[in-house]
Design a protein that fits this description.
The chain is mainly α. The chain contains 17 helices and no strands. The protein has helices at residues 2-24, 29-36, 40-53, 61-74, 76-95, 100-104, 110-122, 133-154, 164-177, 204-216, 224-237, 239-258, 263-267, 273-285, 291-317, 325-335, 355-399. Helix 3 (40-53) packs across helix 7 (110-122). It is globular, with a radius of gyration of 26 Å.
């Protein structure tokens, strides 16, 4: 009797454990619905944390908290600037009364995260230069303005704006101040003309370590510990996103080796971060996850790495950083792809979520389409049946 009751006792325990785990993974939909009914004092921290995570296409406040911890682990001053940029950008979107659902999902915060972080990184005044908060606040305030303006254009093609506001505002700040500014001097970016000697041998452990570091470089961080925390945050939301992040970084590293890039740049992950974002975006976020779209994501990651080399050289001539321009341009090109292959299905922006939920959405869509087609076929049969009886009746009357 005891052994026969054990499975029935373990089944509720397993289901309750899965329910608890599901509450913290994915996009934490149930928690998000609860937050919507609360006051602004609860909604604002949730939106800020989701905004930090949205840099990696993740809509999960716990993932945002983990990423924020990783940023403070790298450099507390950088973490403070990124947190301030996210908060100012989110509050500005609320004051401008932009789309409430987008604000709550953190879609008006992630550009502020990158703006605050990279402004602190590019500043040569060092840590705890408090005057830097002034341009940080101003540029973060402009993030929702630029985002809304670009969205009104991109919505015509049902395209996302990605990190284009961040690219525009950071390049604007660097170009306006420069390396010799008395109050806000920037890193002096010189044209890249040095190539790696192909006869130099690579440090294999360093090459493997550069893959997770490339994920951390999305936020401008080169610490392996920060990269590990960020990967843990991605894994908490979606294992698919975490896997594609690693694959994208590895693709960027391979292209860097093939193009004889300096070993220092390869080891520091600078060749991987744009490919990380491209591989995530195509590999299940904006396309339904299939083997075909997975292959397309890897192709986009390699293409993005080539574009990183070209754009970084072109931008360095102007004394500007490449930022995430390669990611934006390469991913937009792949999203504009017109394919008749049903396995390569781009989702509408209104339905985009994390890859596992996107896959479930497409399955539900196919089931509803099949049900609709079967109901239409049944209705057409019922409509045709009286016509057949009428024809038989007419034939009978004619014979009589």
């Amino acid at each position: 009797m005891g052994t026969s009751n054990r499975p029935s006792q373990e089944a509720p325990a397993c289901s309750s454990l899965l329910r608890v785990v599901g509450f913290f993974t994915g996009d934490m939909q149930h928690f998000g619905e609860w937050v919507k009914r609360q006051s602004v004092a609860i909604q604002l921290p949730d939106s800020i944390l989701r905004g930090v995570a949205q840099v990696m296409f993740v809509n999960n406040p716990l993932s945002g908290l983990l990423i924020l911890i990783g940023l403070f682990l790298q450099n507390p001053w950088w973490g403070l600037n990124s947190l301030l940029g996210t908060a100012v950008s989110t509050v500005s979107a609320i004051l401008l009364r932009l789309n409430r659902e987008a604000v709550l999902a953190g879609l008006y915060g992630y550009n502020g995260t990158l703006v605050g972080m990279l402004m602190a990184i590019f500043s040569t005044k060092g840590n705890w230069y408090w005057w830097l908060l002034v341009p940080n606040v101003f540029m973060s305030m402009m993030c929702p303005v630029v985002s809304s303006a670009l969205s009104s254009i991109a919505i015509k093609w049902d395209l996302p704006i990605f990190t284009l506001p961040f690219n525009i505002l950071v390049c604007l700040h660097v170009a306006a101040t420069g390396a010799t500014h008395p109050y806000f001097p920037q890193v002096d970016i010189q044209p890249k003309i040095h190539l790696n000697d192909s006869r130099e041998t690579f440090d294999i452990p360093q090459l493997f370590l550069s893959v997770p570091i490339g994920v951390g470089q999305v936020f401008g961080c080169d610490s392996p510990w920060t990269a590990g925390v960020i990967l843990l945050a991605l894994l908490l939301c979606s294992p698919t996103i975490c896997c594609h992040a690693m694959l994208g970084s590895a693709a960027g590293m391979c292209v860097g080796i093939a193009l004889a890039a300096p070993q220092r740049d390869i080891y520091s992950g600078l060749w991987g971060y744009n490919s990380v974002l491209s591989c995530i975006a195509i590999g299940g976020v904006f396309y339904g996850l299939t083997w075909q779209s997975h292959t397309l994501a890897l192709t986009c990651a390699f293409f993005c790495a080539y574009m990183t080399s070209a754009i970084s050289k072109l931008m360095s001539v102007l004394g500007l950083p490449a930022c995430t321009w390669p990611f934006c341009l390469s991913t937009l090109i792949f999203l504009l792809l017109s394919s008749e292959n049903p396995a390569i299905c781009r989702l509408p922006l209104s339905a985009v979520s994390y890859p596992e939920e996107n896959r479930c959405y497409l399955k539900r869509l196919k089931v509803s389409e099949k049900a609709q087609n079967s109901s239409q076929e049944g209705a057409s049969v019922e409509i045709e049946r009286p016509n057949v009886q009428l024809e038989v009746g007419n034939d009978h009357n004619d014979s009589v």
